[in-house]
């Protein structure tokens, strides 16, 4: 075999790899499109629900908070404003070093409350339990720092209800978040977890714990992430969910059956993030025991979160995210191509491995190899440009398909914002995606080297002054 | 791979690139078109709302639009209907607006549409009491979509007295209806219409069906609800059914029901005992104290907790200070057991090794 033939074979293999990953993505988009229309229309009609009858299962909302003084009051205000019959909010102060606990104490008139807890999961020691004099639905658990997973475990110990909603301490929740997420549990008793879509809140305006105005940030880096979130939630997750192969329920917006998480051993405390690992562990638990189950996804944007608005913040976030993906891949490697793991083992997990986890290696190798081959004269620059253009076109088509799904269903943004997003979809390939590839690659290196954990990345910055509740509230 | 084959591959890739770019342009156009359509739809809905607002101000709202607006118009009608208080002035005006107008035809037309259309159409035809929709609605009673079937049952039950029995039978037979939706329909029908039907179905349904129908006893009139619950407690053995009957009788119990409920305090299944405590709660008398305090040492923590709360709430405000202290002591003791069992007073010690997460699929190896 000549060198030319080897070079051609590698080029074609790389092309096939990119085509297969993008084709999988387009397939999930098609599934999502098929589901979304009925989903939205059925939900929009909703005519039988005349009366609010208060028969939904009660839910415990868990808010792990570590140094969240900037956003914790807004988060709690939005959670206490839920339109839901019976729920409680448990904030777990995970050894914050800032004024998180003091702010909550002042705003909600917290008082110490010696409370009974069923300690089913081991956690770092709990220093105290507080309840609110102004709102009986709110409790705060103060514990030593142990990470988000440990805080969630402490919250599960304190949860009074059979379902819990895992939140972030720096996100906002629409008033119908719980009622949207509970829908799969009510419709299908096999449901053990349900995730919701997350929107980018950087330039949005909030008032009294509610989203007052949806706006698109003027920053390009934020707009690119808006497109990413659309792709991730509307095309990818909504496409995988009907196959019961959803590999991640977002840590900021996931409703779980408490008994399931307890049976799975609770959240791990030795990894930076916990959401994908827990989702895969639930799959593992049920697939290995052969029990019927369902992990559902609700395409409604019920959670609004701030995304990084500087390259530095984005770098830190993506490095740690990809490290988490790497950890999940190795922890749950048994799922890979295992027929008894069904669609998770045969489709979703392999896609996650090749399409997400190893993608930085493939991209960097592909670009480097292609350029080297063209430089050395094995293939022409025009051929190389055509292959790159094809990858660009596939990526563009994916993004536009996701935008179309949003337009068909939710019309999240105004006309001017949609035009700006269309423009951003073109510029996304001019540096942003390459930046993410390098960040993911570094995350992979961090994981391979076993670099020590350095806590969660810096909090995304504010673009608007944070909302503070009125003084009379607490 | 030969150079020729690679050239062919590049040619195919070029074609694919052009095709996908064309697809991208089409998608971008579709995004903008969808956006423009949404803007136009919002304007049209605003116009429709403006027109329908005239219902509040004038007797003649004008003819409703047809075609693709049918869903929007009928949905809007449903929303206005839902927003008004039962028998409120808007409802009367809306009903007047429907009489003799094409809106009824739009509603009936929706019954042959997709899932959303069928739900909206059935709901509208039921609310507006459009008898012409009955033949189609009877066909929808067996619709595979639960919401459609329930809306069709509602329509039939609102228009036909005998169809209430079918609705009750369906409630007992189906496990895919959301309780709050069923409650809404039962509330709308009223106790006078549903009580005989629920009684008839509860008498012959199997245990699972009886359990489902007994969950809605509170929507029957008190006398019927009591009769149904007492009959279930006397004839049934299934713990789920017994618990449902006990929960049902809790809202309508009378002192004479104590003798029926008390034996269930000693039932072998914990959730039945729990339900029995809920049922005896409103009618407990001092002579029941021995049976209740016996439950203070029940093996189930929730039974102990509930019985302690019941004893305190029902009897601890009596005049006799000695009795009150004794009862509080019993209650505190029961609560103390619960708290001790849950290891409340101190944080749980951290084990040296965390529980192993679910790992390899060992069952297969």
What are the defining features of this structure?
heterodimer; A: 474 residues; alpha/beta; two-stranded antiparallel sheet; 12 strands; globular; B: 365 residues; mainly alpha; disordered C terminus
Number of helices of chain A: 13
Approximately how much beta-strand content do the residues of chain B carry? under 5%
Question: Percentage of helical residues of chain A?
Answer: 40-55%
Low-pLDDT windows of residues of chain B: 343-365
Largest sheet of chain A: 10 strands, mixed
Summarize the biggest pleated sheet of chain B: none
- Total strand segments of chain B: 0
- Decide which structural class fits the backbone of chain A: alpha/beta
Number of helical segments with 4 or more residues of chain B: 18
Overall mean pLDDT of chain A: 84
As a percent range, the share of strand residues of chain A is 15-25%
Distance between the amino and carboxyl termini of chain B = 41 Å
Using only C-alpha atoms, the radius of gyration of chain B works out to: 31 Å
Helix content of chain B: 55-70%
User: Strands of the biggest beta sheet of chain A: in what spatial order?
Assistant: 3-4-5-2-1-6-11-8-12-7
N-to-C order of helices and strands of chain A = HEHEHEEEHEEHEEEHEHHEHHHHH
Distance between the termini of chain A: 77 Å
Overall shape of chain A: it is globular
Subunit arrangement of the protein: heterodimer
Q: Which stretches of chain A are poorly predicted, pLDDT < 50 over at least 5 residues?
A: 45-54, 455-474
Instruction: Please tell me the overall pLDDT of chain B.
Output: 78
């Amino acid at each position: 075999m000549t060198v030319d033939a080897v070079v051609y074979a590698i080029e074609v293999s790389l092309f096939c790899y990119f085509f297969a990953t993008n084709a999988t993505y387009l397939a999930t988009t098609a599934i999502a499109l098929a589901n979304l229309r009925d989903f939205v229309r059925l939900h929009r009609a909703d005519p039988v629900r005349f009366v609010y009858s208060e028969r939904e299962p009660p839910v415990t909302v868990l808010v792990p908070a570590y140094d969240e003084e900037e956003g914790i009051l807004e988060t709690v205000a939005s959670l206490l404003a839920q339109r839901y019959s019976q729920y409680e909010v448990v904030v777990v102060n995970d050894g914050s070093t800032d004024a998180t606990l003091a702010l909550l104490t002042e705003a909600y008139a917290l008082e110490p409350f010696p409370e009974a807890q069923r300690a089913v999961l081991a956690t770092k020691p709990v220093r105290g339990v507080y309840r609110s004099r102004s709102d009986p639905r709110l409790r705060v658990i103060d514990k030593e720092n142990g990470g988000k997973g440990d805080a969630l475990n402490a919250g599960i110990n304190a949860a009074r209800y059979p379902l819990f909603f895992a939140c972030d301490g720096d996100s906002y929740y629409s008033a119908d978040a719980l009622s949207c997420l509970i829908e799969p549990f009510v419709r299908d008793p096999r449901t053990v977890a349900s995730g919701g879509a997350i929107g980018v809140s950087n330039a949005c305006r909030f008032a009294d714990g509610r989203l007052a105005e949806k706006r698109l940030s003027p920053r390009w880096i934020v707009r690119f992430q808006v497109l990413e979130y659309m792709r991730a939630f509307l095309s990818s997750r909504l496409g995988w969910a009907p196959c019961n192969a959803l590999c991640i329920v977002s840590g900021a917006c996931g409703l779980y059956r408490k008994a399931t998480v307890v049976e799975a051993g609770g959240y791990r405390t030795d990894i930076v993030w916990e959401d994908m690992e827990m989702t895969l562990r639930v799959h593992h638990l049920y697939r290995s025991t052969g029990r019927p189950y369902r992990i559902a996804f609700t395409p409604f944007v019920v959670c609004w979160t701030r995304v990084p608005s500087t390259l530095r913040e984005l770098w830190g976030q993506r490095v740690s995210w990809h490290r988490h993906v790497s950890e999940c891949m190795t922890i749950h490697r048994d799922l890979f191509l295992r027929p008894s793991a069904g669609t998770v083992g045969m489709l979703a997990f392999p896609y996650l491995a090749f399409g997400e986890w190893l993608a930085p290696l493939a991209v960097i190798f592909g670009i480097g190899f292609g350029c080297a081959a063209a430089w050395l004269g094995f293939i022409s620059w025009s051929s190389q440009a055509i292959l790159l253009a094809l990858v660009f076109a596939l990526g563009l088509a994916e993004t536009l398909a996701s935008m179309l799904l949003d337009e068909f269903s939710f019309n999240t943004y105004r006309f001017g914002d949609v035009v700006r997003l269309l423009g951003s979809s073109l510029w996304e390939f001019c540096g942003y995606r390459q930046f993410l590839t390098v960040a993911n690659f570094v995350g992979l290196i961090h994981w391979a080297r076993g670099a020590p954990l350095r806590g969660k990345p810096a909090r995304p910055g504010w673009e608007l002054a944070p909302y503070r509740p009125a003084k009379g509230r607490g | 791979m030969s150079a020729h084959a690679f050239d062919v591959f590049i040619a195919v890739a070029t074609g694919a690139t052009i095709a996908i770019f064309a697809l991208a342009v089409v998608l971008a156009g579709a995004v903008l078109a969808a956006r423009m359509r949404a803007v136009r739809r919002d304007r049209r809905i605003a116009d429709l709302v403006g027109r329908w607002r005239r219902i509040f101000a004038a007797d003649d709202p004008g003819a409703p639009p047809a075609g693709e607006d049918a869903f929007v118009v009928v949905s809007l009608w449903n929303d206005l209907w839902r927003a008004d208080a039962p028998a409120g002035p808007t409802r009367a005006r809306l009903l007047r607006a429907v009489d003799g107008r094409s809106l009824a035809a739009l509603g009936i037309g929706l019954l042959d549409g997709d899932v959303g259309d069928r739900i909206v159409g059935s709901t509208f035809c039921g609310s507006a009491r459009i008898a012409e929709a009955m033949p189609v609605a009877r066909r929808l009673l067996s619709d595979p979509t639960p919401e459609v079937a329930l809306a069709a049952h509602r329509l039939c039950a609102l228009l036909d007295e005998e169809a209430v029995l079918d609705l009750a039978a369906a409630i007992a037979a189906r496990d895919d209806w959301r309780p709050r939706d069923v409650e809404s329909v039962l509330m709308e029908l009223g106790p006078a219409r549903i009580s005989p039907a629920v009684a008839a179905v509860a008498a012959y349904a199997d245990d699972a069906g009886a359990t489902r129908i007994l969950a809605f006893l509170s929507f029957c009139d008190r006398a019927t609800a009591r009769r149904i619950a007492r009959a279930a407690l006397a004839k049934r053995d299934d713990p789920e059914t017994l618990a449902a009957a006990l929960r049902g009788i809790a809202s309508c119990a009378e002192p004479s029901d104590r003798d029926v409920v008390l034996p269930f305090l000693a039932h072998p299944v914990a959730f039945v005992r729990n339900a029995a405590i809920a049922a005896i709660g409103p009618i407990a008398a001092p002579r029941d104290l021995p049976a209740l305090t016996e439950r203070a040492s029940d093996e189930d923590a929730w039974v102990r907790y509930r019985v302690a709360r019941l004893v305190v709430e029902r009897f601890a405000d009596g005049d006799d200070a000695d009795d009150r202290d004794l009862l509080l002591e019993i209650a505190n003791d029961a609560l103390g057991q619960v708290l001790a069992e849950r290891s409340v007073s101190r944080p749980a010690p951290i084990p040296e090794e965390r529980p192993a997460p679910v790992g390899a699929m060992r069952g297969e190896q």
